[in-house]
């Protein structure tokens, strides 16, 4: 089983990179299931719309995860109730629209794949305790009992939370990836008990920027320049950033994990 997980799509640049490269990645690597974080996919880099989500699905994405920007577009609150392939963090305040995890099928319909979306508690919008929610989910979705494979997207600001969640899910999930910081880390590996892990898989967008935002304007904002504008995305050539996990069909654990860095300045 080969699983593709891509980081936060950043605005127009990220969407263009996806159109250009996604089908090639899927075909070349014989990808059987694909997940992408879409919370920054709108033109202004904040939120996701129904049209963008459906474009991703038409291109071969199976599930879209998200994070702290999930509600930045008003239409999302109603769309997410109808579309179970668009997830929001499972530990959002109780009663939030949509779902934080789900069970889906591989492209050939042979395998059940669980996808879990969590969000960190530190420096993020108010959420329920992410570690308690992770434990609850582990009791509901068990590898090789309820699902054949399990993917966890942890959307968080700090590396320690992400690493702790990675080790918590080690042996009970196929992979744990960090999203949100838009900068890929160099710690891609398989943990002791067989779970593929990377602290942050980066973004799909223009890296000639400040985490996807226009670099000149971002510098002005840091200098408190009176001419600085609200943040807006950089629109240069984008890079697709993420991982490919080759998983064992008997155990559901990872046999191999490799980084995906395609296109743009980062490649």
Indicate the topology.
Elements: E1 2-6, E2 8-9, H1 11-29, E3 33-37, H2 50-58, E4 63-65, H3 76-82, E5 101-105, E6 112-119, H4 130-140, E7 149-155, H5 159-169, E8 175-179, E9 189-190, E10 196-198, E11 203-204, H6 215-222, E12 240-247, E13 254-262
Parallel strand pairs: 1-3, 2-11, 3-4, 6-7, 7-8, 8-10
Antiparallel strand pairs: 1-12, 5-6, 9-10, 12-13
Notes on the structure:
- The protein has helices at residues 11-29, 50-58, 76-82, 130-140, 159-169, 215-222, and strands at residues 2-6, 8-9, 33-37, 63-65, 101-105, 112-119, 149-155, 175-179, 189-190, 196-198, 203-204, 240-247, 254-262.
- It has 267 residues and is α/β, with parallel strands linked by helices.
- The protein has one domain (2-262): Metallo-dependent phosphatases (Purple Acid Phosphatase, chain A, domain 2), CATH 3.60.21.
- Strands 5-6-7-8-10-9 form a six-stranded mixed beta sheet, with helices on one face. A five-stranded mixed beta sheet has the order 4-3-1-12-13. Strands 2-11 form a two-stranded parallel ribbon.
- The model has no long low-confidence stretch (mean pLDDT 96).
